[in-house]
Amino acid sequence: ELFTTANAELPTVGNTKTKGGEGRLMHRSLIQHPSMVESASGIYLNLANGKRVIDACGGAAVALIGHANEEVIQAISDQARKVSYVHTQAYTTQPAEELADLILDGNPHGLEKAFFVCSGSEAVESALKLARQYHFENGQPQRKHFIGRKQAYHGNTMATMSISTVASRKIPYEGFCYPHVSYVSPAYPYQYQRVDETEDEFTARLLAEIEDEFQRVGPDTVIAFVAETMVGATAGCVAPPVGYIAGARQICDKHGALLILDEVMCGTGRTGTYFAFEQEGAVPDIVTVAKGLGGGYGPIAGVLMHEKVVSMLRQGSNAFNHGHTYQAHPIACAAALAVQRIVKREDLVARCAQLGKQLEVLLRIELINCKSVGEIRGRGLFWAVEFVKDRETKETFEPKLRFGLRVQERAFEKGVALYPGAGTVDGSRGDHVLLAPPFTTTEEELRRICSVFREALEEVE
Ligand code: PLP
Prior knowledge:
Blueprint: E1 16-17, E2 32-33, E3 37-41, E4 44-47, E5 52-55, H1 58-61, H2 70-82, H3 94-104, E6 111-117, H4 120-137, E7 145-149, H5 158-163, H6 167-170, E8 181-184, H7 189-192, H8 199-217, E9 222-228, H9 244-255, E10 258-263, E11 286-289, H10 291-294, E12 301-306, H11 307-315, H12 330-345, H13 348-366, E13 373-379, E14 382-387, H14 403-413, E15 416-417, E16 419-420, E17 432-435, H15 443-460
Parallel strand pairs: 5-15, 7-8, 7-9, 9-10, 10-11
Antiparallel strand pairs: 1-2, 3-4, 4-5, 6-12, 11-12, 13-14, 14-17, 16-17
Helix pairs in contact: 2-12, 3-12, 4-11, 8-9, 13-15, 14-15
The chain binds pyridoxal-5'-phosphate.
């Protein structure tokens, strides 16, 4: 159970237990087999057993424009014919250059360069190394410490796991993790803001804790403060309280540390602005994006770096001391370029913001009588419903009840795929399911998603 249901990853529903005779592919679990998908189109997944499922979570907030978009398919096949692969040590390709330009040209945030890799974990890992290199080149090699947050997920590689706090994923690797990391409280108002505390007071308390942590570890030893701008899977679409990210920015500046915002899940338009940090009045030194970047059409993620970081490299080694064989892969870049061009041309971020308002209304109406709904929260098309045993005390269901997972399973049986959160299963608060439909979803589809969600929840309640 530790490594399957506690996994803040793909739905486990529709799975069948094998009685031996399983295939050679190593799945996430040896006993649960994922559903075979034969084809996917728009918001629909067509399973091999004939079932049709609405992909209301885009995998894990990945499918930005839905599945099987002809323009993207064409771009991928054109690129495969032109150049499928070259090594970036010696070569570059048009789609990689154009993708960086498309994302960064004209951006008002001072983000200067993009570094493309294949996954969110690689992007965050690269960001951590880049931040360390920044200080190294700045003549501050004593900076070794990262301050992260509790109830955070930044990836599965050794360094990204080290700054994450998803216990189930870390247990076997205690002692392997990067040691110079500490964690402050989550900026999670529903569960952690005190009843006698205003939002401003909550923000102030959290910021004081960050400042204290800098002082405790020594301000001149800190490389960066690392946080998801809006928390995704570990708590469920949690926006920080007003002033929190801007306050963290100020603390980092005061102590010469960098601010790394992980927008692997909440970036590229998902929250109704291209970057989630645009709603926070602060700009990070490094921001990571991933899931929506390629919209699922190619494995691609990006590390976007502020000119402050790039100019430090320019004054020093003139290089980023990091690289992967498959970085800036031409076909993945061509796929992402096509996806991002569509997003731009069709003004889909604005559509996401506008559809998000409808999704919120629908969720609030549909779930009004569901007694286990603690909070409905989100931005853009990034919404979560948190379940509690008791609305007054906000007490969570016991992990063994697998409440959120059961809601997700029921919804899947009824033809709607939701994304289950780690929440209580991982021993922390925030048992939830997450919705992240494509920006191209229709109102009719949103209505269907919400009514099936309600039916599923009523059955579990
Ligand atoms: N950072 C955040 C915020 C994530 O949500 C995830 C994945 O869920 C990652 C990093 C890791 O990305 P990947 O699974 O592509 O390695």
